[in-house]
């Protein structure tokens, strides 16, 4: 089977499964989960497409009461519509603000960015606190994009898709007076609803010709983007149409307003079947870091994250991303010469992975909309390590058949059961001290009926 077709051979090379990862189930029974976020502590917030955000406590308990339920105003009638993104303000612990990206109205509806506030109960938001910051009418039901995040500069970024249908019939992604098919960057720390950062690429543009919020353009359906917490680089997974899936990157500090080419370009080729009248030469547009032919594991890219956690040194610095249709995990890592090495980290996958995101410790998780499962990404080559005390004292008190509380208190056996691997311990990354627990379809296009992010 042909796993990769690499067109930028001069800057990208690849190997298969030189490094492997696994998905370790954390939680099941979720209803169409599409995004994950953290507020700077041990909690994980899980976004469900119908309009509900749930809280997973550090001890693994999913709270029964939702953090936020806005299923009333959220329009989730189409497979790519709904509550799609969540971001907590960098000063959330003091101001209690968080931001969501969701679809509103009916029919084609609109996409909306809103601010909410937490209540006196840190596990419950104030649903009546909504402040609508930005809204954009939609011409079709698909291609909503939907991710939202704060950059290392403290500004809020969000990315709606081109508005839908095929071949971007309104040429919206290239029209700088329209918000579709762009990454937007706003300052939410000044006057409401927002202000324009002074160094935005088009901050001084005529507002009737070019939207001053635009940070990047020429995107089809940027379904999941994320910042590298180590470098500040912005990585974008842009869902392709009939030929290519692509991953784009904007290096930290670049304020040139890159145009990634859609609808004129798909990956690094001229979009098949699109009249190129009005399009620039290939050099007019910024090429992706990598693009993939459809088939053989590629159908609808879901952008990911650069791993900056501490459990798995072998993964540090790798950009991990996936594909909604096939669910395998891909990796890009620097080759030391300004290019990238592409690797396939899993041999098989599952349909429906909607995002890869991190917790407060920068460990990576995925959610699957089809199975309703939250999983942790672990290093498949890491080892399960046991403390000598485990062999000497044993995990159980033989007389009572109960767990050895001394080992439990020392953190040498898990606090809850069932354990997370067949031996009962999380995998660790080749190091550690005593016991060391840690010491791991154009596919189904929406205008024809289909799933989230697929179009």
Please explain how this structure is put together.
There is one protein chain. The chain is mainly beta. It has two domains: 12-381, Neuraminidase; 385-440, no CATH class. 3% of the residues lie in helices and 32% in strands. The chain is built from three helices and 29 strands. It has helices at 92-95, 388-393, 405-409; strands at residues 12-16, 21-27, 33-37, 44-48, 52-56, 68-69, 83-88, 97-104, 110-118, 125-137, 147-150, 156-159, 183-186, 214-216, 225-227, 234-238, 244-250, 265-266, 269-270, 290-293, 301-306, 319-323, 330-334, 340-344, 353-358, 364-368, 373-379, 396-397, 402-403. Strand 3 (33-37) and strand 4 form a beta hairpin. The model is unreliable at 1-18, 415-425 and 429-450 (pLDDT under 50).
Structure summarized in a few sentences:
This protein is mostly beta strands. It has helices spanning 92-95, 388-393, 405-409, and strands at residues 12-16, 21-27, 33-37, 44-48, 52-56, 68-69, 83-88, 97-104, 110-118, 125-137, 147-150, 156-159, 183-186, 214-216, 225-227, 234-238, 244-250, 265-266, 269-270, 290-293, 301-306, 319-323, 330-334, 340-344, 353-358, 364-368, 373-379, 396-397, 402-403.
For the structure shown, list the relevant keywords.
globular; 455 residues; Neuraminidase; disordered N terminus; mainly beta; 5-stranded mixed β-sheet; 4-stranded antiparallel β-sheet
């Amino acid at each position: 089977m042909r796993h990769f077709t690499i067109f930028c051979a001069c800057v990208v090379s690849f190997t298969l499964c030189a490094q492997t990862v696994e998905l370790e189930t954390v939680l099941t029974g979720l209803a169409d989960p599409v995004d994950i976020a953290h507020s700077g502590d041990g909690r994980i917030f899980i976004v469900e497409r119908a309009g509900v955000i749930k809280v997973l406590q550090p001890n693994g308990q999913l709270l029964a009461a939702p953090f936020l339920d806005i299923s009333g105003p959220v329009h989730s009638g189409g497979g790519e519509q709904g509550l799609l993104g969540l971001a907590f303000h960098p000063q959330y612990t003091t101001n209690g603000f968080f931001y969501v990206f969701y679809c509103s109205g009916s029919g084609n509806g609109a996409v909306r960015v809103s601010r909410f506030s937490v209540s006196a109960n840190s596990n419950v938001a104030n649903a009546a606190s909504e402040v609508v910051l930005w809204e954009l009418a939609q011409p079709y039901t698909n291609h909503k994009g939907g991710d939202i995040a704060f950059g290392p500069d403290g500004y809020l970024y969000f990315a709606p898709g081109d508005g839908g249908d095929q071949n971007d019939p309104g040429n919206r992604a290239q029209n700088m007076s329209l918000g579709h098919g762009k990454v937007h960057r706003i300052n939410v720390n000044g006057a409401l609803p927002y202000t324009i950062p002074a160094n935005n690429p088009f901050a001084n543009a005529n507002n009737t010709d070019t939207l001053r919020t635009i940070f990047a353009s020429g995107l089809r359906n940027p379904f999941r983007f994320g910042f590298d917490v180590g470098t500040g680089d912005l990585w974008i997974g842009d869902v392709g149409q009939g030929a290519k899936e692509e991953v784009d990157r904007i290096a930290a500090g670049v304020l040139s307003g890159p145009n990634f080419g859609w609808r004129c370009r798909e990956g690094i080729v001229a979009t098949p079947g699109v009249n190129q009248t009005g399009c620039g030469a290939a050099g007019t547009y910024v090429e992706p870091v990598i693009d993939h032919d459809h088939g053989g594991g590629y159908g609808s890219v879901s952008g990911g994250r650069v791993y900056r956690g501490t459990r798995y040194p072998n993964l540090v610095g790798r950009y991990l991303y996936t594909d909604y249709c096939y669910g395998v995990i891909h990796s890009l890592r620097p080759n030391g010469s300004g290019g990238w090495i592409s690797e396939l980290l899993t041999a098989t996958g599952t349909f429906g992975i909607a995002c890869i995101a991190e917790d407060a410790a920068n460990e990576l998780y995925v959610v699957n909309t089809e199975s309703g499962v939250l999983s942790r990404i672990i290093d498949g080559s890491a080892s399960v390590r046991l403390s000598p005390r485990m062999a000497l004292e044993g995990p159980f008190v033989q007389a009572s058949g109960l767990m050895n509380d001394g080992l439990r208190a020392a953190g040498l056996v898990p606090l809850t059961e069932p354990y997370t691997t067949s031996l009962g311990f999380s995998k660790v990354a080749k190091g550690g001290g005593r016991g060391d627990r840690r010491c791991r379809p154009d596919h189904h296009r929406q205008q024809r009926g289909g799933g989230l992010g697929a179009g």
